[in-house]
């Protein structure tokens, strides 16, 4: 497929670069609007807005919202609503927190911080979240109860069960294995981050190539090779730039001081 198409009369019609790359113009408009907002706040804050520390904090805080948003897309597309999504998230968090800090260590007699406990905690959280979603879906899909009623009830039920599970108290998670995945205390580190970044880039390229081959096998029109290469380069560039930018985030002073104290040393000034 070249960068020219055929019009209704059969004459050659040149396509724009955006059309050839098959970029959604609406998505491009949103990205441009976001870039404009980012530029304004960057100038206003003297560069702090796009600094590694702020981007790191935003990325960590956005994860739960992004996960919920991905699930809510399917609910909204089906012309339903889920008012209990926040309460269900809190309930899963409470179950996982109590499983990691109290229930699993007491049942298996393991110490807090055991990697096996963390793995089982993730499985328990996924299973419990799936169960709650299945119950909601069964009531809405098979019992024909309006989603507004079901999820409104779920909002109050799961919120109160959450409070009962934790006795209304905050559960502190200090497992170093958990903190490696982000937060205020720990990260994976530069080496592991770059490894994951290159793996993600390789998966993205493989996905583009596999999608192209699948379209060709079914006789669909595909983009030119150069267009596929440009899109792959953009995606890989964004992934690696994001990893490199976050890797510039220095270790917080308070944590660095604790590391020196753990080794019996005094942190030098500056």
Describe this structure as you would to a colleague.
The chain has helices at residues 17-21, 25-44, 52-77, 85-108, 115-141, 147-166, 176-179, 190-217, 225-246, 253-262, and strands at 4-6, 12-14. By secondary structure, it is an all-alpha fold. Among the domains are: 1-50, no CATH class; 64-182, no CATH class. It has a two-stranded antiparallel sheet with strand order 1-2. Helix 8 runs antiparallel to helix 9 (225-246). It starts with a strand and ends in an 8-residue tail after the last helix. The model is unreliable at 1-12 (pLDDT under 50).
Keywords, separated by commas or semicolons:
single chain, about 270 residues, mainly alpha, two-stranded antiparallel ribbon, disordered N terminus
- Can you give the mean pLDDT? 87
Which class do the helix and strand fractions yield?
Answer: mainly alpha
Main beta sheet strand tally, sense and closure: 2 strands, antiparallel
Contiguous runs where pLDDT drops below 50 for at least 5 residues: 1-12
Strands, total number: 2
Share in β-strands: under 5%
Number of helices: 10
In the sheet with the most strands, the strands line up as 1-2
CA-based gyration radius:
24 Å
Give a quick summary of the entry:
Helix content is 69%, strand content 2%. It is mainly α.
Please write out the topology.
Elements: E1 4-6, E2 12-14, H1 17-21, H2 25-44, H3 52-77, H4 85-108, H5 115-141, H6 147-166, H7 176-179, H8 190-217, H9 225-246, H10 253-262
Antiparallel strand pairs: 1-2
């Amino acid at each position: 497929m070249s960068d020219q198409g055929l019009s209704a009369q059969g004459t050659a019609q040149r396509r724009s670069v955006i059309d050839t790359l098959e970029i959604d113009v609406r998505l491009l408009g949103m990205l441009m609007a976001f870039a404009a907002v980012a530029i304004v706040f960057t100038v206003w804050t003297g560069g702090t807005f796009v600094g590694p520390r702020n981007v790191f904090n935003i990325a960590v805080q956005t994860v739960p919202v992004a996960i919920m948003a991905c699930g809510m897309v399917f609910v909204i597309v089906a012309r339903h609503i889920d008012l209990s999504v926040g309460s269900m998230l809190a309930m899963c968090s409470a179950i996982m927190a109590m499983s990691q800090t109290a229930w699993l260590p007491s049942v298996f007699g393991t110490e807090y911080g055991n990697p096996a406990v963390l793995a089982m905690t993730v499985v328990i959280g996924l299973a419990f979240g799936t169960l709650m979603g299945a119950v909601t879906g069964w009531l809405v899909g098979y019992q024909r109860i309006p989603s507004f009623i079901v999820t409104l009830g779920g909002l109050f039920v799961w919120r109160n069960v959450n409070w009962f599970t934790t006795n209304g108290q905050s559960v502190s998670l200090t497992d170093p294995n958990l903190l490696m995945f982000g937060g205020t205390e720990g990260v994976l580190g530069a080496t592991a981050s770059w490894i994951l970044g290159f793996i993600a880039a390789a998966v993205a390229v493989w996905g583009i190539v596999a999608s192209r081959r699948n379209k060709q096998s079914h006789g669909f029109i595909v983009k030119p090779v150069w267009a596929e290469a440009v899109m792959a380069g953009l995606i890989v560039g964004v992934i690696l730039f994001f990893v490199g930018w976050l890797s510039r985030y220095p270790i917080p002073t308070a944590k660095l001081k604790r590391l020196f104290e753990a080794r019996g040393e005094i942190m030098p000034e500056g």
